[in-house]
Amino acid sequence: MYKQKEIATNVFYVGVNDRQKALFENLWPLPYGVSYNAYLLIDRETVLVDTVDVCYSDIFLRKIAGALNGRTLDYLVVNHMEPDHSGSIRLLRQQYPGVKIVGNAKTHAMLGGFHGITDGLVEVKEGGTLSTGSRTLSFHMAPMVHWPEVMFTYDAEDKILFSADAFGTYGTLDGGIIDTEMNVERFHEEMIRYYSNIVGKYGGPVQKALQKLSALDIRTICSTHGPVWREHIGRAVSVYDRLSRYEAEPGVVILYGSMYGNTEQMAEAVAASLAENGIRDIIFHNVSKSHASYILKDVFRYRGLIVGSPTYSGQLFPEIESALSKIEVREVKNRLFGCFGSFTWAGVAVKRLAEFAERMKWETVGVPVEQKQSLSAANYAGCLALGQAMAEKIKEQSTN
Ligand code: FEO
Predict the structure, then answer these.
(1) Longest CA span, the chain
(2) In the chain, what are the domain boundaries?
(3) Which residues have CB under 6 Å of ligand 1?
(4) What SS3 string covers 177-196?
(5) Res 89 pLDDT > 80
(6) Ligand 1 centre and the CA of 206: distance in Å?
(7) Whose CA is nearest to atom 1 of ligand 1?
(8) Can you identify the CATH homologous superfamily of domain 5-244?
(9) Do domains 5-244 and 253-395 have the same CATH topology?
(10) For residue range 333-366, what is the model confidence (pLDDT) as tens digits?
(11) What is the DSSP letter of 44?
(12) Topology classification of domain 253-395
Protein backbone atom coordinates (compact mmCIF):
# COMPACT_ATOMS: atom_id res chain seq x y z
CA MET A 1 0.00 0.00 0.00
CA TYR A 2 2.76 2.43 0.91
CA LYS A 3 4.61 3.98 -2.02
CA GLN A 4 8.25 4.40 -1.02
CA LYS A 5 10.36 7.30 -2.17
CA GLU A 6 13.05 6.14 -4.60
CA ILE A 7 16.08 8.31 -3.93
CA ALA A 8 18.15 6.61 -6.67
CA THR A 9 17.28 3.71 -8.97
CA ASN A 10 16.30 0.84 -6.67
CA VAL A 11 17.31 2.71 -3.50
CA PHE A 12 14.26 3.41 -1.38
CA TYR A 13 13.67 5.57 1.69
CA VAL A 14 11.89 3.47 4.32
CA GLY A 15 12.34 5.69 7.40
CA VAL A 16 9.68 7.18 9.66
CA ASN A 17 8.79 10.46 11.33
CA ASP A 18 8.49 10.74 15.11
CA ARG A 19 6.01 13.51 15.82
CA GLN A 20 5.14 12.18 19.30
CA LYS A 21 8.29 12.23 21.40
CA ALA A 22 8.81 15.38 23.45
CA LEU A 23 12.46 14.78 24.30
CA PHE A 24 15.11 13.07 22.16
CA GLU A 25 17.18 10.71 24.36
CA ASN A 26 14.66 11.83 27.01
CA LEU A 27 16.77 14.99 27.27
CA TRP A 28 16.54 17.28 24.25
CA PRO A 29 13.33 19.06 23.14
CA LEU A 30 11.81 18.13 19.78
CA PRO A 31 9.53 21.05 18.84
CA TYR A 32 9.64 19.97 15.18
CA GLY A 33 9.94 16.21 15.83
CA VAL A 34 12.66 14.02 14.38
CA SER A 35 12.97 11.42 11.61
CA TYR A 36 14.60 8.01 11.88
CA ASN A 37 15.90 7.28 8.40
CA ALA A 38 16.48 3.84 6.91
CA TYR A 39 17.14 2.84 3.30
CA LEU A 40 16.44 -0.28 1.27
CA LEU A 41 18.53 -1.33 -1.76
CA ILE A 42 16.93 -3.74 -4.20
CA ASP A 43 19.43 -5.67 -6.30
CA ARG A 44 20.35 -9.35 -6.77
CA GLU A 45 20.58 -9.16 -2.97
CA THR A 46 18.24 -6.96 -0.95
CA VAL A 47 19.94 -4.78 1.64
CA LEU A 48 18.45 -2.64 4.39
CA VAL A 49 20.65 0.08 5.87
CA ASP A 50 19.72 0.67 9.53
CA THR A 51 16.33 0.36 11.24
CA VAL A 52 14.21 2.75 13.35
CA ASP A 53 13.07 3.32 16.93
CA VAL A 54 11.06 0.32 18.16
CA CYS A 55 7.98 2.55 18.70
CA TYR A 56 7.67 2.79 14.91
CA SER A 57 8.51 -0.82 14.02
CA ASP A 58 5.01 -1.69 12.79
CA ILE A 59 4.85 0.98 10.09
CA PHE A 60 8.55 0.45 9.34
CA LEU A 61 8.10 -3.30 8.68
CA ARG A 62 5.10 -2.59 6.48
CA LYS A 63 7.13 -0.09 4.44
CA ILE A 64 9.91 -2.65 3.95
CA ALA A 65 7.48 -5.38 2.91
CA GLY A 66 5.92 -2.97 0.41
CA ALA A 67 9.26 -2.04 -1.13
CA LEU A 68 10.43 -5.69 -1.23
CA ASN A 69 7.26 -6.52 -3.17
CA GLY A 70 7.27 -10.22 -2.28
CA ARG A 71 11.04 -10.73 -2.04
CA THR A 72 12.81 -11.50 1.19
CA LEU A 73 15.43 -9.39 2.96
CA ASP A 74 18.97 -10.73 2.54
CA TYR A 75 21.10 -8.25 4.51
CA LEU A 76 20.78 -5.63 7.21
CA VAL A 77 23.72 -3.22 7.46
CA VAL A 78 23.96 -1.70 10.93
CA ASN A 79 25.85 1.58 10.80
CA HIS A 80 24.92 2.59 14.36
CA MET A 81 23.58 0.70 17.35
CA GLU A 82 21.94 3.53 19.32
CA PRO A 83 18.35 2.32 19.82
CA ASP A 84 16.81 5.12 17.74
CA HIS A 85 18.28 3.15 14.80
CA SER A 86 18.72 -0.38 16.14
CA GLY A 87 15.46 -0.61 18.10
CA SER A 88 13.62 -2.62 15.44
CA ILE A 89 16.35 -5.19 14.74
CA ARG A 90 14.88 -7.97 16.89
CA LEU A 91 11.44 -7.65 15.26
CA LEU A 92 13.05 -7.42 11.82
CA ARG A 93 14.87 -10.71 12.52
CA GLN A 94 11.59 -12.32 13.54
CA GLN A 95 10.01 -11.19 10.26
CA TYR A 96 13.04 -12.17 8.13
CA PRO A 97 14.80 -14.99 10.04
CA GLY A 98 17.40 -15.49 7.31
CA VAL A 99 18.57 -11.88 7.19
CA LYS A 100 22.33 -11.62 7.65
CA ILE A 101 23.44 -8.70 9.81
CA VAL A 102 26.48 -6.75 8.63
CA GLY A 103 28.53 -4.82 11.16
CA ASN A 104 31.95 -4.58 12.75
CA ALA A 105 33.14 -6.43 15.85
CA LYS A 106 31.85 -3.67 18.16
CA THR A 107 28.45 -3.66 16.42
CA HIS A 108 28.12 -7.38 16.91
CA ALA A 109 29.04 -7.22 20.59
CA MET A 110 26.28 -4.63 21.06
CA LEU A 111 23.80 -6.75 19.04
CA GLY A 112 24.36 -9.51 21.58
CA GLY A 113 23.97 -7.14 24.50
CA PHE A 114 20.90 -5.26 23.30
CA HIS A 115 19.05 -7.96 21.37
CA GLY A 116 20.63 -11.32 22.26
CA ILE A 117 21.46 -11.80 18.57
CA THR A 118 24.70 -13.73 18.07
CA ASP A 119 24.18 -15.67 14.83
CA GLY A 120 23.81 -14.86 11.15
CA LEU A 121 26.40 -12.09 11.45
CA VAL A 122 28.77 -10.83 8.75
CA GLU A 123 31.73 -9.01 10.22
CA VAL A 124 33.37 -6.22 8.21
CA LYS A 125 36.52 -4.21 8.83
CA GLU A 126 37.79 -0.88 7.50
CA GLY A 127 37.49 -0.88 3.69
CA GLY A 128 35.58 -4.18 3.64
CA THR A 129 33.04 -4.65 0.84
CA LEU A 130 29.78 -6.41 0.09
CA SER A 131 28.57 -7.09 -3.45
CA THR A 132 24.83 -6.87 -3.91
CA GLY A 133 24.90 -7.75 -7.63
CA SER A 134 25.30 -4.56 -9.61
CA ARG A 135 26.54 -2.58 -6.61
CA THR A 136 29.50 -2.83 -4.29
CA LEU A 137 29.04 -1.42 -0.81
CA SER A 138 32.17 -0.47 1.14
CA PHE A 139 32.42 0.09 4.88
CA HIS A 140 34.36 2.86 6.60
CA MET A 141 34.77 2.99 10.36
CA ALA A 142 33.79 6.27 12.05
CA PRO A 143 34.25 5.55 15.76
CA MET A 144 32.69 8.07 18.19
CA VAL A 145 30.53 9.74 15.56
CA HIS A 146 28.65 9.21 17.84
CA TRP A 147 29.27 5.79 19.45
CA PRO A 148 32.35 3.56 19.18
CA GLU A 149 30.83 1.08 16.69
CA VAL A 150 29.67 3.70 14.16
CA MET A 151 30.58 3.08 10.54
CA PHE A 152 29.63 4.62 7.21
CA THR A 153 28.49 2.63 4.17
CA TYR A 154 29.35 3.86 0.68
CA ASP A 155 27.65 2.82 -2.55
CA ALA A 156 30.12 3.44 -5.37
CA GLU A 157 27.45 2.87 -8.05
CA ASP A 158 25.35 5.93 -7.22
CA LYS A 159 27.99 7.62 -5.03
CA ILE A 160 25.75 7.54 -1.98
CA LEU A 161 27.12 7.79 1.55
CA PHE A 162 24.99 6.26 4.30
CA SER A 163 26.40 8.31 7.14
CA ALA A 164 24.67 7.21 10.38
CA ASP A 165 24.14 10.28 12.64
CA ALA A 166 26.68 12.39 10.74
CA PHE A 167 25.10 15.34 8.88
CA GLY A 168 21.88 14.63 10.75
CA THR A 169 19.47 17.14 12.19
CA TYR A 170 16.33 17.32 14.31
CA GLY A 171 13.08 17.92 12.44
CA THR A 172 10.64 15.60 10.66
CA LEU A 173 10.48 15.16 6.88
CA ASP A 174 7.22 16.85 6.03
CA GLY A 175 6.47 15.37 2.63
CA GLY A 176 9.80 15.76 0.84
CA ILE A 177 12.69 13.41 1.60
CA ILE A 178 15.51 14.81 -0.57
CA ASP A 179 16.70 18.37 0.05
CA THR A 180 15.73 19.34 -3.51
CA GLU A 181 12.10 18.77 -2.56
CA MET A 182 11.92 21.27 0.30
CA ASN A 183 12.99 24.59 1.72
CA VAL A 184 15.94 23.47 3.86
CA GLU A 185 16.30 26.74 5.80
CA ARG A 186 14.27 25.43 8.73
CA PHE A 187 16.87 22.69 9.27
CA HIS A 188 19.86 25.02 9.64
CA GLU A 189 19.46 25.98 13.32
CA GLU A 190 18.17 22.52 14.16
CA MET A 191 21.29 20.95 12.66
CA ILE A 192 23.50 23.10 14.89
CA ARG A 193 21.36 22.21 17.92
CA TYR A 194 21.45 18.50 17.04
CA TYR A 195 25.22 18.58 16.57
CA SER A 196 25.90 20.46 19.81
CA ASN A 197 23.56 18.27 21.88
CA ILE A 198 24.39 14.84 20.47
CA VAL A 199 27.74 14.84 18.68
CA GLY A 200 29.32 17.96 20.24
CA LYS A 201 31.72 16.13 22.55
CA TYR A 202 33.33 14.31 19.62
CA GLY A 203 34.85 17.09 17.50
CA GLY A 204 38.13 15.19 17.02
CA PRO A 205 36.49 11.97 15.76
CA VAL A 206 34.23 14.03 13.43
CA GLN A 207 37.31 15.70 11.95
CA LYS A 208 38.96 12.30 11.41
CA ALA A 209 35.82 10.99 9.72
CA LEU A 210 35.64 14.05 7.45
CA GLN A 211 39.25 13.51 6.39
CA LYS A 212 38.47 9.89 5.57
CA LEU A 213 35.42 10.92 3.52
CA SER A 214 37.45 13.36 1.44
CA ALA A 215 38.80 10.33 -0.48
CA LEU A 216 35.28 9.38 -1.66
CA ASP A 217 33.27 10.91 -4.49
CA ILE A 218 29.98 11.61 -2.70
CA ARG A 219 26.91 12.89 -4.58
CA THR A 220 24.22 12.02 -2.02
CA ILE A 221 24.36 11.78 1.76
CA CYS A 222 21.79 9.61 3.51
CA SER A 223 21.96 10.43 7.21
CA THR A 224 19.84 8.68 9.83
CA HIS A 225 18.11 11.98 10.76
CA GLY A 226 16.71 14.74 8.54
CA PRO A 227 16.82 15.32 4.79
CA VAL A 228 18.75 13.31 2.23
CA TRP A 229 21.44 15.79 1.21
CA ARG A 230 22.09 16.25 -2.48
CA GLU A 231 21.87 19.89 -3.55
CA HIS A 232 23.02 21.13 -0.13
CA ILE A 233 25.77 18.58 0.61
CA GLY A 234 28.37 21.35 0.78
CA ARG A 235 26.43 23.26 3.42
CA ALA A 236 25.76 20.18 5.56
CA VAL A 237 29.41 19.13 5.49
CA SER A 238 30.54 22.68 6.18
CA VAL A 239 28.33 22.96 9.29
CA TYR A 240 29.76 19.72 10.70
CA ASP A 241 33.30 20.73 9.75
CA ARG A 242 33.05 24.17 11.33
CA LEU A 243 31.36 22.98 14.52
CA SER A 244 33.77 20.07 15.00
CA ARG A 245 36.66 22.52 14.78
CA TYR A 246 34.81 24.70 17.35
CA GLU A 247 34.84 27.61 14.91
CA ALA A 248 32.45 30.38 15.91
CA GLU A 249 30.64 33.42 14.59
CA PRO A 250 31.31 36.92 15.97
CA GLY A 251 28.46 37.08 18.49
CA VAL A 252 28.06 36.86 22.25
CA VAL A 253 25.89 34.62 24.40
CA ILE A 254 24.83 36.14 27.73
CA LEU A 255 23.89 33.28 30.03
CA TYR A 256 22.61 34.31 33.41
CA GLY A 257 20.53 33.28 36.40
CA SER A 258 18.67 35.72 38.58
CA MET A 259 16.28 35.24 41.50
CA TYR A 260 15.11 38.80 42.10
CA GLY A 261 16.48 40.75 39.13
CA ASN A 262 19.78 42.08 40.47
CA THR A 263 22.00 39.81 38.34
CA GLU A 264 19.61 40.38 35.44
CA GLN A 265 20.21 44.15 35.65
CA MET A 266 23.92 43.45 35.27
CA ALA A 267 23.19 41.30 32.20
CA GLU A 268 21.16 44.16 30.69
CA ALA A 269 24.05 46.59 31.18
CA VAL A 270 26.57 44.20 29.61
CA ALA A 271 24.25 43.63 26.63
CA ALA A 272 23.66 47.36 26.09
CA SER A 273 27.40 47.93 26.05
CA LEU A 274 27.97 45.07 23.58
CA ALA A 275 25.41 46.62 21.23
CA GLU A 276 26.83 50.11 21.73
CA ASN A 277 30.21 48.74 20.74
CA GLY A 278 29.08 47.09 17.53
CA ILE A 279 28.08 43.49 18.38
CA ARG A 280 24.96 42.58 16.45
CA ASP A 281 24.44 38.97 17.52
CA ILE A 282 23.71 39.13 21.24
CA ILE A 283 21.91 36.01 22.48
CA PHE A 284 20.23 36.21 25.87
CA HIS A 285 19.59 33.06 27.88
CA ASN A 286 17.83 33.29 31.24
CA VAL A 287 18.99 29.89 32.48
CA SER A 288 15.74 29.36 34.38
CA LYS A 289 13.75 29.61 31.14
CA SER A 290 16.07 28.47 28.33
CA HIS A 291 16.52 24.72 27.93
CA ALA A 292 20.17 23.63 27.99
CA SER A 293 19.70 22.27 24.46
CA TYR A 294 19.37 25.82 23.08
CA ILE A 295 22.12 27.21 25.32
CA LEU A 296 24.53 24.59 23.95
CA LYS A 297 23.51 25.39 20.39
CA ASP A 298 24.39 29.06 20.86
CA VAL A 299 27.61 28.38 22.78
CA PHE A 300 28.73 26.23 19.84
CA ARG A 301 27.67 28.91 17.42
CA TYR A 302 29.13 32.12 18.89
CA ARG A 303 32.62 33.25 19.92
CA GLY A 304 31.84 35.03 23.21
CA LEU A 305 30.21 33.69 26.38
CA ILE A 306 29.47 35.99 29.31
CA VAL A 307 28.02 34.24 32.34
CA GLY A 308 26.25 35.90 35.27
CA SER A 309 25.34 34.03 38.44
CA PRO A 310 24.08 34.84 41.89
CA THR A 311 25.74 33.09 44.79
CA TYR A 312 23.27 30.45 45.98
CA SER A 313 23.85 28.38 49.12
CA GLY A 314 27.50 29.32 48.95
CA GLN A 315 27.83 28.09 45.34
CA LEU A 316 26.81 28.96 41.78
CA PHE A 317 23.12 29.32 40.97
CA PRO A 318 22.20 25.62 40.48
CA GLU A 319 20.89 25.97 36.92
CA ILE A 320 24.05 27.86 35.90
CA GLU A 321 26.13 25.06 37.39
CA SER A 322 24.12 22.53 35.39
CA ALA A 323 24.48 24.45 32.11
CA LEU A 324 28.23 24.94 32.61
CA SER A 325 28.65 21.24 33.30
CA LYS A 326 27.01 20.40 29.94
CA ILE A 327 29.37 22.83 28.19
CA GLU A 328 32.37 21.35 30.01
CA VAL A 329 31.43 17.78 29.08
CA ARG A 330 31.50 18.80 25.41
CA GLU A 331 35.00 20.28 25.79
CA VAL A 332 34.06 23.36 23.78
CA LYS A 333 37.28 25.07 22.71
CA ASN A 334 38.48 28.60 21.98
CA ARG A 335 35.77 30.77 23.46
CA LEU A 336 36.15 34.27 24.90
CA PHE A 337 34.77 34.38 28.43
CA GLY A 338 33.49 37.10 30.72
CA CYS A 339 31.62 36.89 34.00
CA PHE A 340 29.68 38.77 36.63
CA GLY A 341 27.53 37.96 39.62
CA SER A 342 25.76 39.17 42.70
CA PHE A 343 25.38 38.10 46.31
CA THR A 344 23.74 39.22 49.51
CA TRP A 345 26.22 38.37 52.27
CA ALA A 346 29.11 36.26 50.82
CA GLY A 347 30.21 36.28 47.17
CA VAL A 348 31.33 32.94 45.72
CA ALA A 349 29.81 32.77 42.21
CA VAL A 350 32.36 34.90 40.36
CA LYS A 351 35.22 32.89 41.85
CA ARG A 352 33.54 29.66 40.63
CA LEU A 353 33.00 31.16 37.17
CA ALA A 354 36.69 32.09 36.92
CA GLU A 355 37.59 28.51 37.88
CA PHE A 356 35.30 27.24 35.11
CA ALA A 357 37.05 29.40 32.49
CA GLU A 358 40.41 28.15 33.73
CA ARG A 359 39.35 24.51 33.40
CA MET A 360 38.09 25.20 29.87
CA LYS A 361 41.41 26.95 29.01
CA TRP A 362 39.42 29.86 27.61
CA GLU A 363 40.65 33.44 27.41
CA THR A 364 39.01 35.66 30.01
CA VAL A 365 38.10 39.09 28.68
CA GLY A 366 37.50 42.22 30.78
CA VAL A 367 37.29 42.51 34.54
CA PRO A 368 34.71 40.35 36.34
CA VAL A 369 32.07 42.33 38.23
CA GLU A 370 30.60 41.17 41.51
CA GLN A 371 27.79 43.10 43.14
CA LYS A 372 26.71 43.00 46.77
CA GLN A 373 22.91 43.38 46.83
CA SER A 374 21.57 46.04 44.40
CA LEU A 375 23.55 47.33 41.42
CA SER A 376 25.80 50.25 42.32
CA ALA A 377 26.89 53.01 39.94
CA ALA A 378 30.46 51.72 40.09
CA ASN A 379 29.46 48.18 39.20
CA TYR A 380 27.08 49.42 36.50
CA ALA A 381 30.13 51.09 34.94
CA GLY A 382 32.02 47.83 35.45
CA CYS A 383 29.35 45.94 33.45
CA LEU A 384 29.58 48.50 30.64
CA ALA A 385 33.36 48.08 30.63
CA LEU A 386 32.99 44.28 30.51
CA GLY A 387 30.69 44.53 27.50
CA GLN A 388 33.04 46.94 25.78
CA ALA A 389 36.09 44.75 26.38
CA MET A 390 34.29 41.70 24.94
CA ALA A 391 33.05 43.65 21.91
CA GLU A 392 36.54 44.95 21.16
CA LYS A 393 38.08 41.48 21.47
CA ILE A 394 35.45 39.93 19.19
CA LYS A 395 35.92 42.64 16.56
CA GLU A 396 39.70 42.31 16.79
CA GLN A 397 39.49 38.53 16.20
CA SER A 398 37.01 38.98 13.36
CA THR A 399 39.30 41.30 11.43
CA ASN A 400 42.42 39.14 11.92
FE1 FEO B 1 20.58 8.87 16.05
FE2 FEO B 1 23.44 8.27 17.91
O3 FEO B 1 21.70 7.93 17.24
Answers:
(1) 79
(2) 5-244, 253-395
(3) 80, 82, 84-85, 146, 165, 224-225
(4) CEHHHCCCHHHHHHHHHHHH
(5) yes
(6) 14
(7) 165
(8) Ribonuclease Z/Hydroxyacylglutathione hydrolase-like (3.60.15.10)
(9) no
(10) 999 999 999 999 999 999 999 999 999 999 999 9
(11) S
(12) Rossmann fold (3.40.50)
